[in-house]
Amino acid sequence: MTFTYSLHKIHHPDSFGFSPDAYSRFKFGDDTVARAFGTALAEGFIRDRLRYAGLEKQLVVISSPYAFIPTATFAMKNHFVFRLNSWLAEEGYPVIQEAKVHRTITYKEDYGELNAAERLRLIGNDAFHIDRSFLEGKTLIFLDDIRITGSHEKMILRMVEEYELKNDIYLLYFAELANPAIHPNIENQLNYHHVKSIFDLEKIIQGDSFFINTRIVKYILNYDYDSFCIFLQNQTETFINLLYNMAVGNGYHTIDAYARNLGFIKRCIYPTNNIKA
Hints:
CATH class of the largest domain: Alpha Beta
Structural class: alpha/beta
Oligomer: single chain
Distance between the termini: 49 Å
Order of helices and strands: EHHEHEEHEHEHEHHHHHH
CATH topology of the largest domain: Rossmann fold
């Protein structure tokens, strides 16, 4: 059986039940917010569902699909698991196992701007892969930060069908758009509520709890070149190396739209031709 749970339900475009500024920082790598969101989601899930469930099978938590760079949800997942493990241990249940949905991504567009049909058309070409044998006989918890149109959910359920998974499944979200009259681009408004420009990233990156993710890498690589160069010159060598390694690991060096900014990063790391990237 498949069950859906969301901690917050959005019924009004100006009322979310959580701070939109905090959500925006979370989407761009603020792990302090990820901890708050993940812990709150775990506590809500325990309170509203798990304590009544009679757990008989091993629980497996699966973050939103990614290739090389984790998503913001991955950071939230870490803290969700920490809190859930604490409760499971106290109740005498086995602690969480984890699995990964491997994703082959076919697009670079900003998903949050799109309507339901555009989202499904865009994501429909992506390929999702999971280790079926590892999951056999276990209860699966698929985790994501927000449900807007359900396009990602449809892809997960399509994968479940293709892999013939017979598991009990929970689809968990920190928040869910519950009012169909609200345009899906509300997600984009949330994503950029705090981050209005590349320079708004500096406090997040230079803070004590930064966790790099796909969104921030793509945002930086796709930014206006002149502003990007100014921004990068204010960053540490450690961050610049991390940014480059994440970008290459996700195959972004093959995307023309990212070539100029990524080339500048490469020249910062390898200023002469004596060392080849």
